[in-house]
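I'm stuck. Protein, please.
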Amino acid sequence: MNMNAHLKDSLQSAERTLPEAGQEALANVIEAFTLNYGLTAEANFTGDELAEIRQLATEPFVEADPKEVADFFAQNAS
C-alpha cells in the first residue's frame, strides 16, 4: 500500500522544518490518532467514565478568567 501523497508531503515537510522536539510531538499525535481512529468512546472509557463525561457535557461552559489561567500556569510551570 502506498502512502497518501498529501500525508507523505506533510511528513517530509515536518521532518525538514520541525526541531527534534516538534517531530517527537507530531509523532505522538500521529500515533494516538492511528491507535484511536474509528474507535467508539466505549473502546476507551468505562461505562462510569462515559456517564461522567456525558454529565459534564450538559454543564454550561464558563469562560476562565485569563488572569487566573496565567497565575495557574505560572505556579505550575516546570
